[in-house]
Every structure is written in C-alpha cells, then in structure tokens.
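Researcher: Structure prediction, please.
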Amino acid sequence: MSETPPNTLQYRFDGPEDAPVLILGPSLGTTWHMWDRQVPELTKHWRVFRFDLPGHGGAPAHPAGSVAELTTRLLATLDSLGVQRFGYAGCALGGAIGIELALRHPERLASLALVATSPRFGTADEFRQRGVIVRTNGLDPIARTAPDRWFTGGFAAAQPAITEWAVQMVRTTDPGCYIAACEALAAFDVRPELGRVGAPTLVLVGSDDQVTGPAEARTLVAGIPDARLAVVPGASHLVPVEQPAAVTDLLVHHFSTAWQQPYDTGQTVLPTASAPPVPAVAPPPVPRAEIAPVAVPAQPAVRPDRYESGLKIRREVLGDAYVDGELAQSDGFSGDFQELVTRYAWGEIWDRPGLDRRTRSCITLTALVAGGHLEELALHTRAALRNGLTPDEIKEVLLQAAVYCGVPAARSAFRVARQVIREETTPSE
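Model: Predicted structure follows.
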C-alpha cells in the first residue's frame, strides 16, 4: 500500500464498482476491520468504502485534532476517487464524522446511520485526561481496559480471541494520533445543531453500552428531525462486533429504504492524467449592466471583546470542572476579578501567537515557584500536562527553577507537582 498523503485517509473498497457507495467509519482505537462481519452482506447491495483514522491500523501518523479536519480528509479522499454522493454509517468517532458531514456537506450525504454515537462524548475534561495518561504511560493502559468499555462481560469471557484482537488493535495505534483524536472528541459538541441534520438517520445503540448508551441515542433521535432509534439487546459499545447479524440487518433495512433520491452510484469519471482537458475558447464578452456598490465610509477598527476567547482557552487549559467552580463561586465582590482574569490573562496573553501553550506553561510554572504560589502551582501543573508537557519535562522546569528561584522554593514545588502528577497520570482500573 502506497504512502497516504497527509490530507487524505487510508482506505479500501469492497463490492461491485457500479453499486452506490456506502461508507463505514471506525471508532477511536479501532481499524476498518471492526466492520468485517458486515461487509459480506452489505456488498450485495453497495460498494463499501472503509477507512482508517490517522495512525490506526498502520495508517500514516498524521494527527488530526478535530472532527472537522477528519471530515475534510475523508472528503478529499473521496474527491480523489470521484465519489460524490454516498450513504454513511459511523461508530462513535466515526459517527461524529457522519454528523459533521450531515451538517456541513448535506449535498454529499444520501442517508446516515449513527452507531454508538453522541452529540457530545462525555466531557472535554475526560478526553483531555485520557490524553495525559497516554502521553505519560503510552497506550498500554488504555488497551488493557478497552474490552471492558467495548464489550459486555459475557461476550469478553466467551470470545478471548476477539478480546485479544481488541487489545492489540489499540496497542498498535500511534499514541500521538490517539491523543489528537481525544482532543477532537473533547471539542465536539453539536447539540444545538441537531435540528439541521436533514438526512434520514438511523440511530443504533447497544442496550448495555456504558460509553455512549441509550440515553445519548435518545438525545440524537429527539434532536434530528428524520431519525429512528434501534436498541440492540446484549451489546455494549462495539455493537457491530458483538452483535454483527443484528447490526447488519438494521443497516441493510435502513439504507435500502431511506436512501434519498436520486438513487445512483454517486461516482463521477475522473479525467486521465495522460489526456489533459482541452482549454475551452472563451466566448466574447457580453456587455451587461451592473449595480455599483454603495460607497461605505471607512469605520474605525473595533477591538474584539476577548472574554469569550479567553473563557474558551481557560477551559481548555484548566478544565471545565475548575472553571465552572470558579465562576459559580463568584459574586458581586469577586465577579469583576474573574472577568479580568478571563479577559486579560487568558483572552489577551494566553491567546497571543508568539508562544505555544507548552512554552507558556513552562514560564508559568517557573513564575509560580518563584512566587511561592503552591496552590496555583498545583493547578498549573495539571494545565501543563494538558498542554502536552510530560512529567520528565515538568521535572526539568523545576530543576531549572531550583537554580534561579532557590532550593527551598523548588523543594516545595517538587512536593506539590509530584502529587499532582501521580493523580493525573495513574490510569483508573
């Protein structure tokens, strides 16, 4: 398989070339093989297109930090193949890509199935915490616990080969791409936009899914105008793997009955490289009347209000739970201080392009050690981990601070930072 360019995705086709295209999108930590049991039946009706997320399944490790970017890469891949219109079924992160397609590119989407999907996956803090664990410990802790998240206990015990396959699938994923995908899920929240999903939609969920379960599925059905719900009994998060026959039947029925017209292959013939198109001769210009634009006097530049951008950055760095707590405790006396911090510290300084967030974390840690602000040091040690610093890099910052800020200050800083790092990087069992 040739190297996949950074702006496209690794893919494969199965099924007849003249059939309509049906795309199957994978979950975080999986590969296109999670759909293997559906392919034999689906290819009787469709040309099935499967893709791998960056760094998954041997795909090149070109991280994508947002669902929108993953969607753009998918469309670039399809454009290169001449696929214009298609049906789409996606699981979890793959389902988020499906929602993004429905919202931003509705003209490409004939019909949609969302499997184990949510309009918002947990909380941003949860996924950024997972990124900290992977950055510190690698993917092994996530891999070892994957069967508990993906399968019911009875299935995992009865199918040791599939359970081991799941562990190895996660373990062989590129850590940087996994962390970027966590960031994509952390930022994904389309709850206010569900009413704009126009494609006929099947929402499919396992009855025992503890990750994105029936409650999240009902949120999708309540928000999407043309949506139907299917709950598969005896299945957890990777319901296509655990209950393949039921999922296959539901997909065949949905895409056979809900595919929007016109019902065609959705493919166009691409021009061959050896026969460049003949330039068309431009017709002579035709005189036409135009309405001249009204001259508008120049307005003085208005400086943007930095509060909203500051609040966004503050949440990304410090976490939703902390920021929500701080804002909830503010009152008439302290509210102006919270606004000052949000607007100027986070909206002005942290948002400046001159330094990246890792560097700003290093500077902040050093300044807090120098000032002896241990409570803030604990907060910003957590922030430094979120911003991509490893425990070893934080240690180097504190050693540097010991030389320039004094050994007693650094001793206290090491004590605080060590406790925070233990709490933040120890995988939950």
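Model: Confidence is low (pLDDT under 50) at residues 268-296.
Researcher: Thanks, that helps.
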